[in-house]
Amino acid sequence: MTRSDATFGGSFPYTPQFTAAPGFRMHYVDEGPREAGVILCLHGEPTWGYLFRHLVPVLSITHRVVVPDHMGFGKSDTPPDRAYWLQDHIDNLEHFVLALDLDDITLVMHDFGGPVGMGLAARHPNRIRRVISTNGPTPFGQADLIARVTANAGVSPWFQWIAKAEAEGSLEAVLGQLGFNILSTLKLNGFEDNTLITDTWLDAYGSPFASPADCLGAIGWAKGFASGAHRFETPDAAAIRAIHARPALAIWGEADRTLHAEHFLPLFAQLFPAAPVRRLAGVGHYCIEDAPDEVGRLITEFIRQA
User: Fold this and answer.
1) In whole angstroms, what is the distance from residue 247 CA to residue 10 CA?
2) Residue 2 in contact with residue 15, Cβ under 8 Å?
């Protein structure tokens, strides 16, 4: 776990907040006017709220921006006696949102933040105002969901590695050293701008995984795919009708090697057929790292209009 007061050379200057509502010490950033609508930013594997560091100052001018770290990531605790499957992260986020009584929520989701955020939307559709995918899947009961996830796994180097490592029995050992191999893991998943790589940047992403005991979140997310333990939330008909009517935006780095646009943008389009899709050429899986200014501009313009 990263020290709660770590700012990484001032690149993450936000006051740390904590809640025990999900049954562990969950860290979050909470910036911007309390009376405004909430922008809830959800990270994925193996990142944390640091991913959104460039978006917070832009979006918090007009909105309350809340950025939690999932269990086992960033400045949140990594309890040794908890499960780290998708459904557990959805449970945790639900407890978090209800404890803070977050409403009028604009979801901004990256990577597995997508399934977690859409799980929240399935359970509490009336709390959701808008849905924004930033290279984040939007599973919501689509008939071809599993087929598309499976097809993507067949062409994704990350998912191919997960399957091979699990079969060989090396997944826990490799991801248990994530503090040392964080760069290769991030690069395998995909960012295109190598000027990002500085000692500070590596420290920010590597420090949460200082020991194998700190890596349970990252291990759990990968292992859940390899073992089939993750469970997508199944929305009921009322939730589908509600979310289908919400304004939505997809922003997708086209150089994403982990979550291919051809497999995941159709899932978004099924749920939001009239929604805009902004494809970013030359931008990788971590689109918020590769193109933070462009992503921030697109989100700001969309929220202003919707």
Assistant:
1) 35
2) no
